[in-house]
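Two quick folds needed for the group meeting slides. Do the first one here.
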Amino acid sequence: MCAFKLFSLFSAVGHFFTRYLGIYCLPQINYVEESGRGNLTTVTEFILLGLSNHHDLQVPLFSIYLSIYTITLMGNILIILITMDPALHTPMYFFLRILSFLEICYTSVTVPKMLVNFLSDNRGISYVGCVAQMYFLLFLGISECFLLAAMAYDRYVAICNPLRYRLIMDRRVCLFLTVLSWFWGNVVSLVQTAWVFTLPFCGSNQINYFFCGIPPLIKLSCIDIPLYEMQLFIAAILVIFIPFSLIVVSYTFIISTILKMGSAEGRHKAFSTCFSHLIVVTLYYGSCGLIYLRPKSIHLLDTNKVLALIYTTITLTLNPFIYSLRNKEVKEVLRRLLGDRMKRKNIFL
């Protein structure tokens, strides 16, 4: 509960500063209308073009992504409820609970607006709304990057130093790693959001994307952006590479330790506790890296949309199934909870 309160505090502070930056500190987004008089017009909103301009596809896409969003919410809420069971009060399930909470928030930043746009002719998002959406997307996404690194460290301690696991990964350390991931997510997202919205925008205010992301937004700038693209590339390397490197180092030691185990059953059990985390890391870092770390020469907007869909919706939908289907303890608690519910239902009948 302390972790959730701290998350809310960081979110509230971030939202306050984002709103402050968007209204008072940043220059207004202006563009020059292509008219004979060349009037300077203040842009108060952006237009999200979304996934497709074909009207016949809007209702089917709405149905598909409403189903995906519902499954994502239900799956992650179920993971949170299951991991609150006393039998699962361990660091691994504490981080899994935080991860599910982040993913509920993350998907809720983009998907509801996308669903509304499927059924509406007005696809506008206000200037402040775009600032806030970018901030929370970056905050939650970067926090998840560092949280996945913390989860890898937890698995490293559990497998490579099992006798001291409880001593090292106590509640205070778990809370510290969680707050640290939120702190860096908050700092980086504030800096990046402020940086993007200090750019002068001109010409079209149409974002060829389904949310306010950095790559499509900086393309609307009326100044040369190679320097800004290089800055984004360097920031992406730091944000993606640092936690990913920690994950690689952790799993290098983990695999080395597993291979030295004499029992085949012990090796299988140790690896099974890491397999779900490895799948999630591969999906999340793979799609993010392909968007932000690819050379400019092979950047295709439609490909970026697909990759963005993977890490903003598809991965978040799959995570509860990945963690539950591969985890015997989670399945056991779920089976017990369902069994208790059935027994209570028979008693009332």
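Then this one, please, same format:
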Amino acid sequence: MADLDNKDQTEMDPADMEDVEEVEEEETGEDNSKARQLTMQMMQNPQILAALQERLDGLVGSPSGYMESLPKVVKRRVNALKNLQVKCAHIEAKFYEEVHELERKYAALYQPLFDKRSDIVRAAYEPTDEECEWKQDEEEELTVSKQEEMKEKAKVEEEKKDEEKEDPKGIPEFWLTVFKNVDLLSEMLQEHDEPILKHLLDIKVKFSDAGQPMSFTLEFHFEPNDFFTQTVLTKTYKMRSEPDESDPFSFDGPEIMGCTGCTIDWSKGKNVTLKTIKKKQKHKGRGTVRTVTKTVPNDSFFNFFSPPEVPETGELDEDSEAVLAADFEIGHFIRERIVPRAVLYFTGEAIEDDDDDYDEEGEEADDEEGEEEADEENDPDYEPKV
């Protein structure tokens, strides 16, 4: 009987076992949920993220230990592969040099079209009816009768407008609108910049001549105005397309090494890159108060033409490095996107294309989140949050 009693004590009813398993699963689920919440909180903490990033940066390029474990004869062959990789980097550099030459060649083919665009914008040329015809997308196509009806209605409305006010010349505020439509550029704009940019007629890209060091210049063409005496402001970016001898594997195409702006000859009282402030100072001994006027830098798009100078040592403080990094990004964007596709940034179509690229990533994230929610709902132990 004693043995039987002990057996009853050591063995457990299967139903009780299921209850224990369910409790354990519930506890495990709660622990996982708490862990996820804690992880999310940590990832939202900027200090923790910065510490993690610093740690990860320290790991980049550090040996994993695998190479050290290889036999000497294998390490020798790996070194041969790395030497081949260096040669590949030098060939890649030559490839980009030839790409630059192609850019120079095709820039000459694009330029007549860009010149005509400029003529239309500044009302130096009025396009013909044929040039103004634009074929709509198939989805937007209307019946012939509807099109004629709309054309007639538009014609009547235009005639009324012509009677009410003078017909605008060219495309007013074309480049200012482009700048305001692009986040990267609109962030630089201040309210006091806008009256000046209304006088901007064109932006051109000029590539360095054949045989010269790789570079490109952005030319901002203005009509005569009351703000400065020049009609052209320039910004030149110097580039390099060769692997760094000390780190050849980091080569990833041409990089901007520095840039040079221009001195703007501001009219008296029109320099928007400076502002005057007044400060009151109290004399320690006599207690008298005087007002001191000081001129200090002012936020403006036109600071773009006065970038920090890169010293010969190439070393910059953090603030200057950040300014130059942003400057290089802006210069590259103007060259690659704004100048070739200006009309699409004016209409907003290019911006929609850019947004679509980001939306795709967002949709993928939403899909993953949706799948996670579906999994939770299918879980019999899932309890919705109230």
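Slide caption for protein two: The CA atoms of residues 211 and 246 lie 26 Å apart.
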